[in-house]
Amino acid sequence: MGMSVTISAARAQDAENILKLQYLCYQGEAALHGDYTIEPLTQTLDDLRADLEGGQCFVARLGDEVVASVRGRIDASGTARIGKLMVHPRMRRHGLGGRLLDAIESHFAQDPAARRFQLLTSGRGDGDMRLYRSRGYAPVRASADGSRLDLVELEKPAAAGTFVASA
User: Fold this and answer.
1) How far is residue 17's CA from residue 131's CA, in Å, rounded to a whole number?
2) Exposed (0-12), middle (13-18) or buried (19+): which is 55, by Cβ within 10 Å?
3) What domains appear along the chain, each with residue ranges and CATH number?
4) How far is residue 128's CA from residue 133's CA, in Å, rounded to a whole number?
5) Is residue 6 predicted with pLDDT exceeding 70?
6) What residues form DSSP beta bridges with 8?
7) Torsion angle defined by CA atoms of residues 85, 89, 95 and 98, in that order, rounded to the nearest 10 degrees
8) Strands of the sheet with 65-74, listed across from one edge
9) pLDDT 10s digits, 9-40
C-alpha cells in the first residue's frame, strides 16, 4: 500500500527543501526560454525564508518529502498574488498543482481584504494554462520581464469560483 500525499501549510524548516524543489522544477522553464538566470533559479535561501515569513505557503508531502509547493500574499490593493506553483517532475499529472492552487485560494478567500487572485505563468506552458483556465483564471495581459520570458498575467475575482481544497 502506497503513501498518500497531504497538503499543509509550510513550516519554517521546509525552506531548504522548497528551494531544492524550486531549483529542480524550474530547470525545464529555464531550458524552454534559454535563460538560466530566471529568479526561481537565482533566489537565495534567505530570500525564500523572507517570502515564507511575509506570505503564505502550502506544500504537498509524500511522507516527509516535500513534492510540491505554492506561495502567495495579499498586497495593499487586495490582490492575492499567487506564485511559484511547482510539482516535482515525478509527481506531475496527479492533480497536485490543482490541489495546491485550491488550498491557497481557499486560504486567501477567508481574508475579507482579498478582492482578486492573480498569477503569472509562461505563455509557452500549455499544461499550466489549462490548469489555470479550468480554475476560472483569464489572461489580463502579456508581459516580458526584460529576459527571454513570455509571461502571461492571469486573474479572477476572489469570490468567483473559489474551490475548496481537500487534503
Assistant:
1) 25
2) middle
3) 5-157 (3.40.630.30)
4) 9
5) yes
6) 59
7) 10
8) 5-9, 56-62, 65-74, 79-87, 116-122, 151-157, 138-143
9) 999 999 999 999 999 999 988 888 788 998 99
